[in-house]
Amino acid sequence: MMKNWILIFIAAFTFLSITDAGRIIKNNQPEIKEVYTADIIIYGGTSAAIIAAVEVVKSGKTVLIVSPDQHLGGLTSGGLGFTDTGNKAVIGGLSREFYHRVWLHYKDDAAWNWQNQSDFGNKGQGTIAMDGEFRTMWLFEPHVAENVFENFVKENNIKVLRGEWLDRKMGVVKKKGNIISFSTLSGKVFKGKMFIDATYEGDLMAAAGINFHVGREGNAKYNETFNGVQTGVFQHDHHFKSNISPYKIQDDPSSGLLPYISAEPPGEFGAADKKIQAYCFRMCMTNHPENSVAFPKPDNYDASKYELLLREFNTGRNDWFSKFDVLPNKKTDTNNHGAFSSDFIGMNYDYPEADYQRRTEIIKQHYDYQAGLLWFVANDPRVPDAIRTKMASYGLAKDEFKDNNHWPHQIYVRESRRMIGDYITTEHDVMQRIETPESIGMGSYHIDSHNTQRYVTSEGYVQNEGDIGVKPPGPYRISYGSIIPKKEECTNLFVPVCVSSSHIAYGSIRMEPVFMILGQSAAVAACLAIDEKCAIQDVSYNQLKKLLENKNQILTKEKK
């Protein structure tokens, strides 16, 4: 079950020891490292990684994907099937090709095995499911997305080495600002002319000595408005709307705080901190009995973890099902909603820079919290009858994530490290207050940060902090400089996921279609740098721009 999965996950990082001689000791026998070469080496298995690899092949270069993950596609195939699109008109290139292939899949009647397409309809809370005019589809089941990525790999004969974890301590070899190679914990060595870090965590970037930031900058850093601590700012419904006691015994501070409430003050408004927005799993559920598996009850289940939710229910909260976003075949992409939900607020601060074992522990803690939450709402008799009864009609989708007990294989890393690169995208770029240089793609989604902490107000009540939702005036440009390091740090590494941006700007950039856009643009630039025999910072932008436009990337759009 889940316990076995976690043990296997940890074991993958601990069975080897690396020697200074560049060999591996395995079962007390030295082995020569296997060496793999390609023009471009991509580290990661995310949507950005796969799209980047496809582009490398289309651009006539050789490529290898070195993926720590067994499953390809990251969050796109990991439960986030209700796509955060923003303005679909600026999603171009291979990113749009992905959504076109999803559309082709659902055009076939055979894809609708649990319901008829006519019964599904064509809208999901403001999002057109099947966009016939542009032949794209934006709502999809996890396994459908994964199959699209696997087909991309197969069609383009892309070699993928799975379960390969970067040796973050000693694995990266650099010479005169160039990465020469990196090695993984299995002992394999990967040599290339160019490298792309397409992970959510930015591990290759960090191991290569590139400067990065974790947490929230203060507003003063880049003269922003929505960065740093945001106490008293409520732009979504993800805060407590009633005065609720944070203490184990209501209104009795001597009884101690309920779980997951910080005893520390939240900090001054606008100030910097090391906190990051909350993570969760995007759950694929169904209320179709033939395809439903009951919510698992964690071994360490403790109902007291959810006392705060119970108190919120008792105030009359009735929006529990608001983010059960509908997917084809009677499934959902269930996301966080409300003050107490699937976001495990404040429990991920270590994750970005943690070692693999600690990250595994954090993921397990998130599983325990979220699985326990689902079980609690569906089974605890104190939950209001209407909510409990409806929740009990749901379960995990039996035909999804079959090798992981129907639980998503990818936790939602909403934010981790962010590179401090050649250009730092800020709120001013997103809000179009300045002219962003050298566009390689566009974003358009709201500036969206989930809560970062749960604390006790000066009045003695519980409250959340960090949730921001600000709409840009229109699609905005993303600069080439935001996916490359400073020249003095590295001249052959692209970072299209942990991009160079402020915390609050990343709240908009961090959408899966954008990651695919930036992955393709990074690959085009990498190939161009090889052809021009130059550092990536010296690539001719005019030539890059022409290539991107020829590949249907959308680089600019007039503000409406």
N/C terminus separation? 52 Å
What percent strand? Answer: 15-25%
DSSP helical segment count: 14
Helix content: 25-40%
Shape call: globular
Biggest sheet overview: 7 strands, mixed
Question: Would you report the number of β strands?
Answer: 27
Describe the protein.
The chain is 26% helix and 17% strand. With 560 residues, the protein is α+β, with helices and mostly antiparallel strands. It is globular. The longest helix has 24 residues.
Secondary structure blueprint with pairings:
Elements: H1 2-11, E1 17-18, E2 24-26, E3 29-31, E4 35-43, H2 47-58, E5 63-67, H3 93-107, H4 117-120, E6 123-124, E7 127-128, E8 130-131, E9 136-137, H5 142-155, E10 159-162, E11 172-175, E12 178-183, E13 189-197, H6 203-207, E14 212-213, H7 219-222, E15 285-286, E16 292-293, H8 307-313, E17 324-327, E18 331-334, H9 356-379, H10 385-392, E19 395-397, E20 418-419, H11 427-430, E21 439-443, E22 447-449, E23 453-456, E24 462-465, E25 468-470, E26 476-479, E27 493-494, H12 503-509, H13 512-532, H14 541-550
Parallel strand pairs: 4-5, 4-13, 5-10, 13-27
Antiparallel strand pairs: 1-2, 2-3, 6-7, 8-9, 11-12, 12-13, 14-20, 15-19, 16-19, 17-18, 21-26, 22-25, 23-24
